[in-house]
Design goal:
The chain is mostly helical. The strands form three sheets. An eight-stranded mixed β-sheet has the order 7-8-9-6-12-13-14-15. The longest helix has about 40 residues, at about 705-740. Mean pLDDT is about 75; it is low at about 355-450, about 485-535, about 745-755, about 765-770, about 1255-1260, about 1305-1350 and about 1395-1405.
């Protein structure tokens, strides 16, 4: 840079301006002269003559000759101090021209005398050998402080010659003290810190007032390069470079980059009047002022300085040996400090947010990780702390003199401490940190799950950073390396043509312009130590600096922007450096590379996948090691494992995606030395990656790391299963084509024999290997995952909430993987989950907490997934018994049978003591799932509705439609039903009218059952015979009676008596004779009446005799038997009370069922409901509107490159041409399209969910049979006509793609004119989230109007929604306008009565999980997760920083969204499961509409028809 300019080094050596005429005299004589002259000058002026003694120029110059010699005298007296005081007083002439203590000529020409004065002051800094170092240090510091004040405060008064003289003075003094080898406790050792600080600060001040000419810059660079064996040189260089860089970044980038935080005192070093051009020139020249910092790693270069050579020659006949110098033992720490300074500058250009770094948790670092060379004591003895290469990404970056000194003191202990009078140790306290130098860019509302900082979007390009620092970093990364590679070449390469594109540059070209414009070979060869030198002895000691360089290079490459091109030469050198640095023997460098490369494989670097084998080899030495004792000296084990796991997550899809693609090895000898054969294809890496995954899970102890591994394991199983399924389908198609072509499948059989196991289908693997498929296949990995996870779940994770939830999510995800697995493995998984529940419930009471119960609830949910996905598991008696026992344990708190031989405790005898109410509700939900969903999902109504779509209104409408007359029903349809409540938990609606669907004439009844599990409709018919009996189809016929016998003879005559005949045989007694006979008492009057009565009797007898005779004649003429009097069986009853019969057959009609239970407020077991009471219909509709499954909503956005406005993002999906084809494929893989109005499930908004066109009285357009996207980019699924929908037995999800033309909140409201008809209309204007009060008012108004027409609003608990964002450029994530886009993600639950979600929380961006995905050039996808910073926010299987294949992207996104919503409900205190909400609603309905009939009236009402 200054090769064409001369150096002033020789001028400085020949300068004799510091010598005085008194040097010609004997020392004793000259000393007396000095003492005599200085004494009156140092005294105060006389009152009679206040002026200075010196009045003429000649007097002043003669006096200065004396003072200059006085500065060379020993420090045993006060002569030298008085000389210094006089000169310092004279320097005040620049500030105070009226100071009478300063001679008049000095006040008149201060610049001229100052230049001479500075030459004399050089004598003060010449080391003395009389042991008075401390006094000399104090005097030197006072002089340096005065000069520093002069340059910074009075710079405008100095002339150019004065500035140059000041710079020359500081250079001479510094070179005199710092160039020779340092002596411990010497003047240079004690004064180096302050001297270098003043030199650089004064030089910086000179740049703004009088910019130094190139010869001065060249001289400074040459001299400072000989002082680098002093730690203070690099420390102060780091400090000044950081200050200049901070101001330069503000000048170049403004607010687009976070500011580099430096102390306020250091900021004042840059003059306010420094121009932009001057700042840029000063920054670049200061950056190169110490030369190449990599030379510090070669002691031979440092020892080749002239002063070192002179010191060696002074030994006289002793062979030169640089190792004898004690100061060279500090070079490893100095080299590390220099690399830390360079990495700090790189971080500033990358825009790494310092605020985020400071908020991260502190990482404990072993202070003894770097062994001090040659017996130098460690920093632990002095209380210092060190900074390992990886912790620069997590340390508080505050550059100050104090912090910079800490780096040196933390690495080696300097024996002689700086006295407290030093300004550098007290003038800039670390507490005075600049408060206004924080990141100017507004922090993103997204909370990243990964605490690692990310570069700023407006950062510099990689090529620009490497052009500045590339040469130093690449050379430092290869310090002490002897690579056997064709890259090593001594021929320099030509600089690349800037007119050519980076992709057109040859690999052999140079590294760019400026500093980095050298070849790879020259940088490597320059880093090799000289043969026989001392570099070989300290090879390990320079690993800290080399590790810092490697980590910095990794961060630079990982910060590549989307679409940015990097010069091929930089990529080639970087890959070579990383391949060299990943050697296991160099653990410090290995740890630095791993810790700074988590996102390296997902940055779209060309050819980066060639490093996969080397990273895998490095990970195989980290992840399977539980303790990492070999790495604890260099890194925190948890962070090292976390970074390794992140790298593993980016490597997992490579063998699944690239398959048979060949890998070109970079360094074959590296792998062969470790006993590893270089892999030929990516497929060969799969088994190693699988083993790494299993090994990492076996040794991991950190919860966050464990969760990442579990998510990666689930992804690996699912993606492998999808790949094997695709291969199986392809094999089947090929086999069918071959069979159709030649009628045989021989070619298919031969090809299968050579097909790799990783590409074979599941059935083929099971056929080839039986029950033990290969470990890297989907069945093999699934079985290994089940056994390992269940074992760890019982042993290690039972007290870890995060790890347990992730493990249960993994098991639930494995249940949905469709691969052929032994049923015993499935039963093992179910049994393990049951055992986990038992062990958690039986833990002592002090261990029971909300976290513990959350684990039990999640375990019950996992159990439901396994049972619904594999219903045949319960066909086995033992499995069924175990599952039901677990349900019983959750509901009641104890099992009925403790052991195999124990007695059974009945339900009524057990005390109900569940672990908690949440656990009981989860067990009840499991029982409901077993009884209603097991083996019956999806139901006939489809997956969107696990309940029946029929209700009372539709049943009556169906009956009316089948009647001949078309007259409408004249009464309420509910009046045709009888309503009962059973056990306070089930509503029973009974319709006695036949539906007309049965061909038999037997009595039939229709039931509408409403319970915790939903609404179900059943039609029952009374059957006397089984339906499969042949008598059922035979028509009903009366059986003939037997043939009667003929008459036996005449009919006997029977005389009827009042009393039996034996009465006449009884003798009379006196009492019998006490009553007289009738003739004895008859008189005349009685005789008349008696005669009249006798005649009547005769007439009656005669009549009866005639009638009997007539009957006898008729009987005699009638055949026997009489057909009119013959007994016949009654015919079938034409009508019956079917409701009464049903209740009676079910055993519900009993007096005990109608009695109020004693000591309880519960109603009887059977309660009649009164549908005529007000509000019954509304309450029934509210019950039907409660869903039976949790409902989640996912909103999908597409962000094109560079877009930051919400309107632009929403308009992207209007056309298919504005989105990528993979995005459309992702949409269709998330769910299936459904049409609103024909969809009975959740639609993403409460106003259009759980209803069809008949419910709202409107007609919706039918679904088109063509393209489901209808030519759009996904806008058709904006929730107005269609949405994407997915449902299983346990949950349902709606996927909505918001658009610009869509209603912002999709808040459907009822028009004032339509409240009577119940029609829904959509607002014409777009609703925004400008005022939250408007949204609240709109939601409440909708609730009131909808209730008025029978549309009830359910209380669904916390709002669960997830944002899925497709970004073309990864840098746009930081500017994603989540706050504005949340305005179009309304679900209708905001502010509704009974909802736990308020408008404030619905618009809070920190409560919504966000899944970002970016397509890479390789066809893979990079994933980033953001959202709530809660413990349970990070759901699986997707993990932040993961890379996945296109094949599994949709499945993983859906599972992650469902798990995230499930975790949010699990964490919410106000969430109630759906079956609990329905139970509460049923109880309320029974209490409000219970019939108060007495028992007789209740039974009588069953015999009367309904009012309808």
């Amino acid at each position: 840079m200054y090769s064409e300019w001369r150096s002033l080094h020789s001028v400085l050596d020949r300068d004799r301006g510091h010598l005085s005429v008194l040097h010609c005299y004997p020392e004793t004589c000259a000393r007396d002269v000095v003492a005599a002259v200085v004494r009156p000058l140092g005294q105060a002026p006389w009152p009679s003559n206040p002026e200075c003694l010196l009045q003429t120029d000649k007097q002043v110059k003669w006096t200065m000759e004396v003072l200059g010699f006085g500065l060379t005298l020993p420090l045993d007296g006060d002569v030298v101090k008085r000389c210094v005081d006089v000169y310092m007083e004279w320097l005040n002439a620049f500030s105070d021209l009226h100071n009478t203590l300063v001679p008049l000529p000095v006040r008149q020409q201060p610049n001229s005398y100052a230049r001479c004065l500075l030459k004399h002051l050089y004598n003060l800094f010449v080391p003395r050998g009389n042991g008075s170092v401390d006094r000399q240090v104090d005097l030197c510091r006072s002089v340096l402080s005065s000069l520093q004040h002069l340059a910074r405060g009075l710079g405008d008064s100095l002339e150019r010659e004065t500035w140059e003289g000041l710079l020359v003075f500081l250079l001479r003094v510094s070179d005199t003290l710092l160039a020779p080898p340092t002596q411990h406790g010497g003047l240079a050792d004690l004064l180096a810190e302050r001297l270098v600080a003043v030199l650089l600060e004064v030089w910086l001040a000179a740049c703004s007032h009088c910019f130094p000419t190139p010869p001065y810059w060249r001289t400074a660079r040459e001299l400072i390069s000989t002082w680098r064996h002093h730690p203070a040189v690099v420390t102060q260089w780091n400090r000044i470079s950081a200050v200049l860089t901070s101001r330069l970044l503000q000048q170049l980038y403004g607010m687009s980059l976070p500011s580099l935080r430096v102390p306020e005192d250091d900021l004042a070093l840059i003059p306010a009047n420094m121009t932009e051009e001057c700042l840029a020139q000063s920054w670049f020249r200061f950056l190169h002022m110490i030369g190449n910092p990599v030379d510090l790693a070669n002691p031979a270069i440092v020892a080749s300085a002239p002063r070192f050579q002179e010191a060696l020659m002074e030994c006289g006949g002793v062979p030169p040996d640089a190792s004898r110098f004690h100061c060279l033992r500090h070079l490893p720490a100095i080299f590390h400090s220099a690399m830390c300074g360079v990495s700090q500058l790189v971080d500033a250009f990358l825009g790494v947010s310092r605020t985020r770094l400071e908020n991260t948790s502190s990482v404990p670092v072993n202070t003894n990780r770097m062994s001090a060379p040659f017996g130098v004591t460690s920093s632990s003895s002095s209380g210092g702390t060190t900074t390992s290469p990886h912790t620069r990404r997590a340390r508080a970056v505050t550059v100050s003199k104090t912090v910079a000194r800490t780096v040196t003191a933390a690495t080696i202990q300097v024996t002689a401490a700086v006295p407290h009078s030093s300004r550098s140790s007290s003038a800039t306290p670390q507490e005075k940190t600049s408060s206004n130098l924080h990141a100017p860019v507004a922090p993103s509302p997204l909370v990243n799950f990964d605490p690692r900082p990310s570069p700023a979007p407006g950062r510099s390009q990689v090529n620009s950073i490497l052009n500045l620092f590339g040469q130093w970093l690449f050379e430092a990364a290869l310090v002490n390396c002897r690579p056997d590679t064709p890259f090593v070449s001594g021929q320099p390469a030509q600089a690349p043509d800037p007119r050519r594109k980076p992709s057109q540059l040859p690999v052999e070209s140079g590294g760019g312009a400026g500093v980095a414009g050298v070849s790879v070979g020259s940088s490597i060869s320059s880093s090799l130590p000289a043969e026989g030198g001392i570099g070989g002895e300290w090879r390990e000691n320079f690993e800290a600096g080399r590790a810092e360089a490697c980590g910095t290079l990794s961060c630079i490459m990982a910060s590549k922007k989307t679409g940015e091109e990097i010069l091929p030469v930089y990529l080639a050198r970087f890959y070579f450096v990383i391949a060299q640095g990943l050697q296991v023997s160099e653990r410090h460098v290995l740890a630095a590379i791993i810790l700074n490369s988590p996102s390296l494989f997902c940055s779209d670097l060309k050819g980066i996948n060639t490093l996969a084998p080397y990273f895998i080899s490095a990970l195989e030495h980290i992840l399977p090691d539980r303790d990492l004792h070999k790495f604890k000296m260099f890194a925190n084990p948890t962070d090292l494992r976390r970074a390794s796991i992140h790298i593993l997550l980016t490597l997992l899809p490579l063998p699944l995606h690239f398959g048979a693609l060949r890998i070109e090895p970079l360094l074959d000898h590296r792998l062969l030395e470790e006993g590893i054969a270089p892999p030929s294809t990516f497929r060969a890496l799969k088994l190693r990656l699988v083993n790494l995954l299993i090994g990492a899970l076996q040794t991991e102890c950190d919860s966050a790391n464990t969760q990442m591994i579990l998510g990666a394991m689930l992804y690996m199983v699912q993606d492998s299963a999808l790949l094997e399924k695709a291969v199986s389908q392809a094999d089947g198609q090929e086999a069918s084509q071959t069979q159709n072509r030649d009628g045989s499948v021989s070619s298919t059989g031969s090809s299968e024999s050579v097909t790799p196991d990783s590409e074979k289908s599941g059935p083929a693997l099971m056929r080839d290997y039986g029950s033990s498929p290969p470990a890297d296949s989907a069945p093999g990995l699934l079985m290994r995952a089940i056994h390992l996870v269940t074992q760890r779940l019982q042993v290690q994770w039972k007290s870890d909430l995060i790890a347990s939830l992730a493990a249960l999510e993994l098991l639930a995800g494995l249940a949905k993987v469709r691969v052929p697995v032994d049923p015993a493995e499935q039963r093992h998984a179910v049994s393990a989950v049951c055992e986990f529940i038992v062990s958690q419930c039986r833990r002592p009471a002090p261990y029971h907490s909300r976290d513990l119960h959350s684990m039990i609830v999640a375990a019950f949910s996992c159990l439901c997934v396994w049972l619904t996905e594999h219903p045949t598991l319960l066909d086995e008696k033992n499995c069924l018994w175990e599952v039901l026992e677990i349900v019983e344990l959750g509901v009641s708190g104890a099992k009925s049978r403790v052991g195999p031989g124990s007695t059974v405790t009945l339900k009524g005898e057990k005390e109900q003591a569940p672990a908690s109410l949440r656990v009981r509700e989860a067990a009840e939900a499991t029982l409901t799932c077993i009884m209603q969903n097991l083996g019956s999902f999806p139901p006939p109504s489809g997956a969107a509705s696990p309940c029946s779509l029929l209700n009372e209104d539709r049943l009556i409408a169906f009956i009316q439609s089948r009647k001949a007359s078309s007259e409408p029903a004249s009464s309420d349809p509910l009046l045709h039903f009888r309503f009962f409540a059973l056990d306070n938990s089930v509503l029973l609606s009974i319709l006695e009218q036949p539906l007309g669907l049965q061909t038999e004439k037997s009595p039939s009844v229709t039931l509408v059952l409403r319970g915790a599990g939903g609404r179900h409709v059943w039609t029952m018919q009374l059957q006397q015979q089984p339906r499969d009996s042949p008598l059922v189809d035979k028509p009903f016929e009366t059986e003939n009676r037997p043939t009667p016998r003929p008459p036996a003879g005449p009919r006997p005559t029977i005389r009827h008596r009042v009393f039996p005949d034996e009465v006449d045989k009884i003798p009379f007694v006196k009492a019998d004779c006490s009553i007289p006979d009738l003739p004895d008492i008859v008189d005349e009057q009685l005789a008349i009446q008696h005669e009249k009565l006798r005649r009547l009797l005769d007439v009656q007898i005669a009549y009866e005799t005639g009638v009997v005779a007539t009957l006898d004649r008729a009987r005699a003429s009638t055949p026997f038997p009489d057909p009119q009097l013959d007994c016949r069986p009654p015919g079938p009853a034409p009508a019956s009370q079917t409701a009464r019969l049903l209740l009676s057959h079910l055993g519900l009609l009993s007096f005990e069922a109608l009695k109020e239970p004693s000591n309880s407020r519960l109603p009887p077991s059977l309660v009649a409901l009164e549908p005529t009471l007000p509000g019954f219909r509304q309450d029934l509709a509210a019950l039907d509107s409660l869903p039976t499954r949790p409902c989640d909503t996912v909103f999908v956005f597409y962000v094109r490159a560079g877009q930051t406005q919400a309107a632009q993002i929403l308009s992207n999906v209007e056309k298919a041409s504005t989105v990528q084809g993979a995005f459309l494929e992702l949409l269709l893989s998330l769910g299936w399209p459904v049409v609103l109005g024909q969809h009975p499930g959740w639609s993403g908004h409460v106003a259009t969910s759980w209803q069809t066109a008949e419910d709202v009285g409107t007609s919706f357009p039918s679904e088109s049979n063509g393209d489901p996207l209808e030519g759009s980019g996904g806008a058709v699924f904006n929730g107005e006509r269609k949405v994407l929908y997915f449902a299983d037995a346990l949950t349902e999800v709606a996927f909505v793609v918001p658009t610009a033309s869509q209603n912002g909140g999709r808040d459907f409201v009822l028009g004032e004119e339509d409240t009577g008809r119940g029609t829904l209309r959509q607002p014409s204007s777009t609703t925004t989230c400008d005022t939250q009060a408007e949204n609240m008012a709109g939601a409440e108004a909708w609730a009131r109007r909808a209730t008025a027409v029978g549309k009830a609003l359910p209380s669904l608990g916390p709002e669960t929604k997830v944002l899925v964002v497709w970004v073309e450029s990864y840098d746009d994530i930081e500017h994603f306008p989540i706050t504005e886009l949340l305005a179009v993600t309304g679900t209708g639950l905001e502010g509704l009565p009974g909802s736990t979600t308020s408008v404030r929380s619905s618009c809070s961006e920190r409560d919504v999980p966000v899944v970002f995905m970016q397509p890479l050039a390789t066809g893979l996808f990079r994933v980033r997760l953001a959202g709530p910073a809660a413990r349970l926010a990070m759901a699986t299987p997707l993990v932040d920083g993961m890379v996945v294949t296109r094949r599994a992207l949709g499945l993983l996104v859906r599972q992650t969204a469902v798990n995230a919503c499930r975790r949010r409900r699990l964490e919410s205190d106000l969430h109630s499961p759906p079956h609990v909400r329905r139970k509460v609603k049923i109880t309320d309905l029974i209490h409000k509409h219970r019939s108060r009939l007495l028992e007789p009236d209740f039974f009588a009402s069953l015999f009367y028809p309904t009012l309808g």
